[in-house]
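Need a sequence for this fold. Nothing fancy.
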C-alpha cells in the first residue's frame, strides 16, 4: 500500500470518528424521536397547562337594522312603519382568563360589541354569567368579569410581546365555528402589521397558526405557556383559514385592560407631535428603524421637553421603536399624566428627553399619525 493511500484511509477513519462524536453530543440530533419507546417531542405539556385558561363566550345581543319596507314610499304613506327593526342575535367567540381572583377575561371587542348578555364556559364545563367591564374598539380589546365565582379558576401568565421574533413557534387556542376548544400551532410570520383597515390602533402579530371564525378573543401563546397575543382577525376570501391570522400583542392589550378596569374606558394621551416612518434613503443610511418627528405643536409637552422637528425617536421607556404606528400606539395607551423617556437622534447624535403625556384632545395636531 502506498503512503498516500494510507494517509487517505487514516483521514477517512478520523472523519467517521468525528461524525459519530458529533451525533452523540449534538443537542438537536439527540432529540430525534425513538419510536421504540423513547421520548417523542410534543406540545401536549404546554397545551395541558394553558387550555384551562381559555374560555368559550356565548353572546346574546340586540342589534338594529334598516327596515327594508320603510324604503318604499307607498308603505311609508299607508302604514306606520318603524325606520329600523331590532332583532336578537347570538354569537360565539373566545376569551382568556388573565386574573383568576377577580375573574377578569380578555377578549376581542367585536366579540362582545352590542352585548346584552354573555355567558362564559370554561374547559371543564362550568358556566358563568359575565359582565362587560369595558371595551375599546380602536384596539379591538374588551374585558369581561365573571360573576358568581366559585374558585378553581386558572389564569394564564402574560408574556412580553416585545420580545417575540419572526420565526418563533406559537400556539392558538380558541373556539372556531363554535365547535369547542381547539388548538392549532404555527410560527410568527411577521410583526407590526398595520394598514389592515380593521381598527384605529394597529400593531398586529401575524401568524400562520390556524385562526378561524370563533377563534377571536382566544389565546396566542409561546412555547413557555405565556400569553403573547389576543387573536382578532383573519384574511380570507372565503371566511376560513388560509394561513394569515392576526393577534393584538399582549403588551398593548395589557395597557388597554388596565385602563378599562380602572376607568371603564381608554383615556388616550399624546405629547403633541406629528410623526411618520423613515424614508427608504434615511432608513438605509444608518441601518436602523424609528419614527421621524414631522411637526411639533406649539406649547405641547414635546416642545417643552426640547424635542424638535426632524428628530428620530429610537425608543420609548427602553422599548425600541420600529415604526410611526408603534410609537403612536405606545404614547396613545400611556396614562395621561405619566412621564415617558424618549431616546432620539438629532443630526446623528444620541439624546434623551423626559416628556409628560397630556390628554389627547388638549393638543390638536392635524396629521394622519398624530401624537
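Here you go.
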Amino acid at each position: 500500500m502506498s503512503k498516500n493511500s494510507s494517509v487517505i484511509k487514516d483521514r477517512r477513519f478520523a472523519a467517521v470518528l468525528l461524525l459519530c462524536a458529533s451525533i452523540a453530543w449534538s443537542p438537536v440530533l439527540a432529540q430525534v424521536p425513538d419510536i421504540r419507546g423513547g421520548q417523542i417531542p410534543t406540545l401536549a405539556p404546554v397545551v395541558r397547562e394553558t387550555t384551562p385558561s381559555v374560555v368559550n363566550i356565548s353572546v346574546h345581543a340586540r342589534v338594529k337594522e334598516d327596515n327594508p319596507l320603510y324604503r318604499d314610499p307607498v308603505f311609508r304613506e299607508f302604514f306606520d312603519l318603524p325606520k329600523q327593526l331590532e332583532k336578537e342575535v347570538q354569537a360565539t367567540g373566545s376569551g382568556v382568563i388573565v386574573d383568576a381572583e377577580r375573574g377578569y377575561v380578555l377578549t376581542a371587542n367585536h366579540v362582545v360589541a352590542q352585548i346584552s348578555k354573555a355567558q362564559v364556559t370554561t374547559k371543564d364545563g362550568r358556566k358563568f354569567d359575565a359582565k362587560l367591564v369595558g371595551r375599546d374598539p380602536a384596539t379591538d380589546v374588551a374585558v369581561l368579569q365573571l360573576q358568581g365565582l366559585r374558585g378553581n379558576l386558572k389564569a394564564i401568565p402574560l408574556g412580553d410581546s416585545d420580545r417575540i421574533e419572526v420565526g418563533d413557534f406559537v400556539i392558538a387556542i380558541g373556539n372556531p365555528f363554535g365547535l369547542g376548544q381547539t388548538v392549532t400551532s404555527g410560527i410568527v410570520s411577521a410583526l407590526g402589521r398595520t394598514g389592515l383597515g380593521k381598527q384605529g390602533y394597529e400593531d398586529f402579530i401575524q401568524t400562520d397558526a390556524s385562526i378561524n371564525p370563533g377563534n377571536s378573543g382566544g389565546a396566542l401563546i409561546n412555547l413557555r405557556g405565556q400569553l403573547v397575543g389576543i387573536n382578532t382577525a383573519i384574511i380570507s376570501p372565503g371566511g376560513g383559514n388560509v394561513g394569515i391570522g392576526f393577534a393584538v400583542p399582549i403588551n398593548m392589550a395589557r395597557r388597554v385592560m388596565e385602563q378599562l378596569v380602572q376607568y371603564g374606558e381608554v383615556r388616550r394621551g399624546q405629547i403633541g407631535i406629528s410623526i411618520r416612518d423613515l424614508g427608504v434613503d434615511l432608513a438605509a443610511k444608518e441601518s436602523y428603524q424609528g419614527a421621524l418627528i414631522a411637526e411639533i405643536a406649539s406649547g405641547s409637552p414635546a416642545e417643552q421637553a426640547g424635542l424638535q422637528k426632524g428628530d428620530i425617536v429610537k425608543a420609548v421607556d427602553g422599548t425600541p421603536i420600529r415604526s410611526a404606528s408603534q410609537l403612536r400606539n405606545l404614547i396613545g395607551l400611556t396614562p395621561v399624566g405619566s412621564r415617558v423617556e424618549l431616546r432620539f437622534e438629532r443630526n446623528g447624535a444620541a439624546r434623551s428627553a423626559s416628556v409628560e403625556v397630556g390628554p389627547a384632545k388638549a393638543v390638536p395636531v392635524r396629521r394622519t399619525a398624530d401624537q
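For context: The chain is about 20% helix and 35% strand.
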